[in-house]
């Protein structure tokens, strides 16, 4: 397994982004699309907090409204009802205080890795020595110094995702929002990304909100785990993932606590997934109810 250094006494530490972490509160938010008979309620009366200086991970069945919530948090869309606030102020549109990293690569294929990372500062007319030093620092942190002059198609999928993280972090958002950023990577690249990403978070303690459908990814990364219901999406449970940091693959998945969290989360997710599977079938609904009764009686995962 690759060992990644997270040396906090790094001599270039002064170049790190000046992190000011934000906090987002989502209060009774609902979001519907369409009108009349064709109205579809995707998120319903959903409330949660993305706590300052924590890595909050949201996990839920496919199609439960996670990406919709991200668009609302980013300010690309507005809730039908309810409110979303950052540091107590309503979110009215996209802003530099929040930055979203999507599943799809947003790197410009005609720009080198370095130029991609410098895109944000340059777009703001801030191609300063400080920004260039920070780009160099971030290239080092994501292990791409030797690839600074390569173009995205010359990088592996994992390298592209690391370049993307550096490109987001140089803008120093108060809250980083990530929508399944490692989806589609092979298992080994994915696990490597988890260690890189956890390391970047552990150094900065910037507020992070990370959406995934991968339970191992969720547990490895999270300080807090939000479990979603089936559509219309709502937070069904919050689990504090009190595993020590820095996180390392080698010991996280051997730990008793990680396995307890996984069993509890899987039990809840299974119930939610079965609801979508049921689709009105009485036999399937009965199965879900029986499963829930059994889980209530015997505890999660037993
Ligand atoms: N603009 C829209 N108009 C109509 N329906 C939409 C719109 N955006 C999303 N939906 C519907 O809302 C539901 C939730 O979609 P969303 O992409 O938010 O789920 P998700 O949890 O992110 O799914 P996945 O994990 O598969 O990416 C889906 O049924 C989708 O078809």
Automatic annotation (TrEMBL):
Superkingdom to which the source organism belongs: Bacteria
Coiled coil: none
Alphabetical keyword list: ATP-binding, Cell membrane, Membrane, Nucleotide-binding, Transport
Name under which the protein is recorded: Nitrate ABC transporter ATP-binding protein
Similarity comment: family membership: Belongs to the ABC transporter superfamily.
Ranges for domain ABC transporter: 24-255
A GO molecular-function annotation: ATP binding
Gene3D superfamilies tied to this protein: P-loop containing nucleotide triphosphate hydrolases
């Amino acid at each position: 397994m690759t060992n990644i250094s997270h040396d906090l006494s790094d001599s270039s530490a002064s170049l790190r982004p000046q992190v000011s972490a934000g906090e987002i509160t989502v209060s009774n938010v609902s979001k519907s699309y369409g009108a009349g008979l064709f109205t579809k309620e995707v998120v319903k009366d959903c409330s949660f907090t993305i706590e300052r200086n924590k890595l909050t991970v949201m996990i839920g069945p496919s199609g439960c409204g996670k990406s919709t919530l991200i668009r609302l948090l980013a300010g690309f869309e507005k809730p039908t009802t309810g409110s979303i606030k950052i540091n107590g102020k309503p979110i009215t549109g996209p802003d530099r205080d929040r930055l979203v990293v999507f599943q799809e690569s947003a790197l410009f294929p005609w720009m080198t890795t370095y130029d991609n990372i410098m895109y944000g500062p340059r777009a703001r007319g801030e191609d300063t020595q400080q920004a260039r030093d920070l780009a160099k620092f971030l290239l080092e942190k994501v292990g791409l110094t030797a690839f600074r002059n390569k173009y995205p198609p010359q990088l592996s999928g994992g390298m592209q995702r690391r370049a993307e993280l550096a490109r987001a972090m140089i803008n120093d958002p108060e809250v980083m929002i990530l929508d399944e950023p490692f989806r589609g990577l092979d298992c080994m690249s994915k696990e490597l990304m988890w260690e890189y990403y956890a390391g970047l978070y552990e150094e900065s303690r910037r507020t992070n909100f990370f959406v995934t459908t991968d339970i191992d990814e969720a547990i490895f990364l999270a300080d807090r785990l939000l479990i979603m219901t089936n559509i219309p999406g709502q937070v069904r449970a919050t689990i504090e993932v009190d595993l020590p940091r820095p996180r390392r693959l080698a010991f996280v998945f051997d730990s008793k606590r990680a396995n307890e969290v996984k069993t509890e989360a899987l039990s809840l997710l299974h119930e939610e997934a079965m609801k979508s599977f049921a689709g009105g079938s009485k036999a399937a609904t009965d199965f879900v109810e029986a499963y829930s009764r059994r889980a209530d009686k015997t505890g999660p995962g037993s």
